[in-house]
Amino acid sequence: MTLRVSIVGASGYVGGELLRLLLWHPQVTVAQATSGRNTGRYLYQVHPNLRGRSNLQFVHPDRLEPCDVLFLALPHGEAARAIGRYQSLAPTIIDCSADFRLSDPAAYARWYGEAHPAPELLGSFVYGLPEVSRAALQGARCASGVGCNATATNLALLPLVRAGLVDPGQPVIVEVKVGSSEGGATVSESSHHPERAGAVRSFAPVGHRHTAEVEQVTGLRNVHLSITSVELVRGALATAHVFTTRPLSEKELWQAYRSFARDEPFVRIVKERQGVYRFPEPKILAGSNYADLGFALDAATGRIVSICAIDNLMKGAAGSAVQCMNLMCGFEETAGLQFPGLHPV
Ligand SMILES: NC(=O)c1ccc[n+]([C@@H]2O[C@H](COP(=O)([O-])OP(=O)(O)OC[C@H]3O[C@@H](n4cnc5c(N)ncnc54)[C@H](OP(=O)(O)O)[C@@H]3O)[C@@H](O)[C@H]2O)c1
After folding, report:
1. What pLDDT, on a 0 to 100 scale, did the predictor assign at position 214?
2. How many domains would you assign to the chain?
3. Is the CB of 61 under 6 A from ligand 1?
4. 337 alpha carbon to ligand 1 midpoint, in Å?
5. With a 6 A CB cut-off, is 128 part of the ligand 1 pocket?
6. 227 and 185, same structural domain?
7. Does the pTM exceed 0.90?
8. Is the peptide bond before 344 cis (omega within 30 degrees of 0)?
9. Fewest CB atoms less than 10 Å from the CB: which of 75, 203, 266, 296?
10. pLDDT digit string (tens) for 57-71?
C-alpha cells in the first residue's frame, strides 16, 4: 500500500527534513509540498540536498488537495487557526508545531499567553513522541508535534521517572544546549552570522515554554529548564541534574536505563569508560532519528547527571513525526528512518 502524503510549510527547516524522509520512504508518495513564498519553484531550489530526487514544485497553500496523510510544519498558531480546513483534506494529520501538544487548555493559556483557538480538539491529538505514546498512536488519526528541547529533556528524565527514582521533594535542573536550526529558516537579527557564530548565549535561562511538555510527559512539577544557544546548526543536548529518593548504585541506574531503552528502536545508551564519544553527543546524530542517553552518578552527593542528545530536526521534529506516521498507518516503525548519522562530520 502506498499512501499519498503532503506537507504544509515544506519550505521550512522541519518541512525540508520531512521531504528528505518522505521522498525516500518505501510506503508513501509525496503528493504536494506547499510554500507561499516559493510557489512554482522546484523543491531542490530551496532544499538543495533534494536535487535529482523529485521534480515536484512548491504549490501555494491555497492549492492544497485531498491526500491520505497531511504533515503541518507551520509557525506557532497557524495550524490551530486553520485546522478545520486541514482536517477536511486528510483523514490523518501530523502537526509539528506546539499547537496541539498540551492536552490541558489551562496549561496552554499559561505557557503561550492566550486561550487556545480550538480547545475542543486538544483531546483528539495524541502526543507525538512514540517513546511516550506508542500504543495510543497506533491507528490514531491526529498526532501533535514534539518540542525539540522538551524531547531531549523528557528522554533524559524518563528512565529515572519510570523507575520511580526521582525525589519529588528536590528540584530537577536541566540545561539544554541547542543549535541554530531550532529557530527555523526565517532570518533575524540574532541569526545574522557575525552575531550567531561562536555564540554560547543564554537564550531562555528561565520560563521556556517546553517546560509545560516536560511536566505533562514526566508528571514532575519541579523541573527547571535553561536553554543555551551554542555553535551548532543541528542538535540539542539536555543535561539533567536529578536527586533520587535513596542512595543508588551504578548497577541500579544501568537497570533503569536499559529497561527504558530495551524495546525502543531509536534510543541508545551511550556510556563508555574510554574513547572520544563517552557520553551522548549531537555531533554524530545529524540527520539521524536516534536519541542517545547516558548518565553519570556522583555517589558522594547522590546527584545523577542524565544526558540526552538528539538532532532537533529529527527526533526533535520530523523524525518523530514520521515515526508517528509509521505507527498511525501500520507501517514498520523504523521505515524510512534508518540513516545512522555521519562520522566524522
Ligand atoms: N526547527 C526546529 O528545530 C523545530 C523542532 C520542533 C518543532 N518545530 C516546530 O515546527 C514548526 C516549523 O518549524 P520550522 O523551524 O520548520 O519553521 P520555518 O523554517 O520558519 O518554516 C515555516 C514554514 O511555514 C510556512 N508558512 C508560514 N506561514 C504559513 C501559513 N500561514 N500557512 C501556510 N504555510 C505557512 C513557511 O513557508 P512560506 O512562508 O513560504 O509559506 C515555511 O515553509 C514550528 O511550529 C516549530 O515550532 C521546529
Report:
1. 98
2. 2
3. yes
4. 21
5. no
6. yes
7. yes
8. yes
9. 75
10. 999 999 999 999 999
